[in-house]
Amino acid sequence: QKHPLLDSAIQFIAENTQNPTLSNTCIAKQIGISEVYLRKLFLSYYHITPKQYVLDIRIRKAKQLLCDTPFSVTAIAEECGFSSVYHFCRAFKEKTGMRPTEYANLNKIYQI
Q: What are 30-82's pLDDT values in tens digits?
């Protein structure tokens, strides 16, 4: 059973994933708890930090966009809330082992 504050945090994250300024501070403030308590809740229930959770959501969305749309890597980075295309490419490769363009080429559904 999840903690009710986590439900609020998860909903806020889902609604603001595309915002590059989304942070632990922002999330904690929105749901009315401290950053330390927010981190503790995430670690207790999900075994990852809020920052890792947000990154996982962004990477999942990026994978979907890379496969299903003709958008550029830059446009996808922006749509997923990354502060720069460089940060997006680095984070994507860390999580998947591939560059975004490699992933898209292997998994592309939409062809021009």
A: 999 999 999 999 999 999 999 999 999 999 999 999 999 989 999 999 999 99
Lookup result for tokens 């749309």: 69
Secondary structure, 3-state, 43-100: HHHHCCCHHHHHHHHHHHHHHHHHHHCCCCHHHHHHHCCCCCHHHHHHHHHHHHCCCH
Closest-CA residue to 42 (of 26, 32, 54, 30): 54
* φ and ψ of 95, to 5 deg: -80, -35
Which residue type, as a one-letter code, is found at position 33? I
Contacts of 102 (CB under 8 A, 6+ apart): none
Location of structure tokens 């927010």: 38
- DSSP-assigned letter for residue 33: S
Residue 21 DSSP code: T
Q: Which amino acid is at 7?
A: D
Say how far apart CA 30 and CA 43 lie, in whole Å.
19
